């Protein structure tokens, strides 16, 4: 069962909204839930990680190295950065999107070309998707978070789609609801490995 989830990305990608939706969803299902505050630089462009944990009784929101059941990565490099936190045989859902950090933009470093291979070699189960393209097709590049949640929903079969829809409607501002619902559906219907 997927109980310990890390949501990783770059500031401005909507990781906080994704963690809020996931946390509410689990609470509605009767789980004890802990959602962390943001760790890292939450301003646009900085690395961001949140933890969502569910269970009968959860003492802490933090996930230690080797404890994450799943990493939901909004950006490729962030998937690699937090890989040590994934348990053996854990799952990574990663958007193929690349956002170059400052050290790459300044020429001090190079964006690694083989991140997907690195993740697979670690023993993780990897689902790589083009979440950005799906979000754009749904109506907004900012809806990557809902595309990724749609993919994640397929790995949580114990939670029916209607429960996801209810929580999305309760959490997303009304003026963005239609786009976000389309993005979630796109992720849920996406072909994954």
- Percentage of residues assigned to helices: 25-40%
What is the fourth-level CATH superfamily?
A: Pyruvate-ferredoxin oxidoreductase, PFOR, domain III
Mean pLDDT: 90
Major sheet summary line: 7 strands, mixed
Query: H/E series, N to C?
Result: EHEEEEHEHHEHHHH
Low-confidence blocks of residues: none
Can you describe this structure?
The model has no long low-confidence stretch (mean pLDDT 90). Strands 1, 2, 3, 4, 5, 6 and 7 form a 7-stranded mixed sheet that branches. The chain has helices spanning 15-28, 76-81, 102-105, 115-121, 131-138, 144-154, 161-171, 174-188, and strands at residues 4-10, 32-35, 39-40, 47-55, 68-73, 86-95, 125-129. It has one domain (4-188): 3-Layer(aba) Sandwich (Pyruvate-ferredoxin Oxidoreductase, domain 3), CATH 3.40.920. The protein is globular and about 45 Å long. The chain contains 8 helices and 7 strands, in the order E-H-E-E-E-E-H-E-H-H-E-H-H-H-H. By secondary structure, it is α/β, with parallel strands linked by helices. Helix 2 (76-81) links the parallel strand 5 and strand 6.
